[in-house]
């Protein structure tokens, strides 16, 4: 991915992403890039909010040690599915149970080694990114607008029938997939 045209805030997030990935790689921690930057690595617009990595729960302390050893600081958080670390004022989330599903060896094995801002690192596949996001929608958090552009950008990389099957218990995921079908982003004959 090229960094041309990105703002200073995006540059510093990319720097934090590279520092965190490098620290975890050096420590031998299994991880994969997730969230907006994983979508960016696969062709979506650059993320401007935070950096997300998935790690197995058993590797969480090693990941925290690697990042704090690199000069980042841990922040206590009430959520029971992630830990938060800051590189200066830039947030890095270490997610070990996205949407109630444990990060496991299979998820990490599906990650592809991609170059992100000139650093090779494991990046979750588009299917996992979409499933994780769709399962995060709930009655109080169902604003689809910020994920529509991601799905447009990644649509050819996603196995949509597989995503529908893995999210079939969620009415919010069904609504989102129906919206994608009605907007002609995907062909929803599998819904």
TrEMBL record:
SUPFAM superfamilies: Nucleotidyltransferase. Pfam families: NTP_transf_5 (PF14907). The keyword Cell membrane does not apply. This is Putative nucleotidyltransferase-like protein. One of its GO terms (molecular function) is transferase activity. The lineage of its organism: Bacteria, Bacillati, Actinomycetota, Actinomycetes, Streptosporangiales. It comes from the Bacteria. It comes from Thermomonospora umbrina. InterPro entries: NT_sf, NTP_transf_5. Keywords: Transferase.
């Amino acid at each position: 991915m090229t960094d041309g045209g990105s703002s200073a805030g995006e540059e510093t997030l990319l720097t934090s992403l590279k520092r965190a990935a490098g620290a975890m790689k050096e420590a031998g921690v299994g991880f994969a890039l997730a969230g907006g930057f994983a979508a960016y690595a696969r062709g979506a617009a650059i993320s401007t909010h935070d950096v997300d990595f998935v790690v197995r729960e058993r590797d969480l302390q090693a990941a925290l040690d690697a990042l704090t050893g690199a000069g980042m600081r841990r922040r206590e958080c009430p959520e029971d599915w992630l830990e938060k670390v800051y590189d200066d004022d830039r947030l890095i989330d270490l997610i070990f149970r996205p949407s109630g599903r444990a990060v496991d060896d299979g998820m990490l094995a599906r990650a592809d080694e991609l170059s992100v801002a000139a650093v090779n690192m494991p990046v979750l596949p588009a299917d996992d990114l979409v499933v994780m996001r769709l399962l995060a929608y709930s009655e109080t958090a169902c604003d689809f607008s910020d994920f529509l552009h991601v799905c447009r950008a990644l649509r050819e990389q996603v196995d949509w029938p597989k995503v529908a099957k893995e999210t079939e218990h969620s009415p919010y995921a069904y609504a989102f997939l129906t919206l994608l079908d009605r907007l002609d982003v995907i062909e929803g004959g599998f819904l």
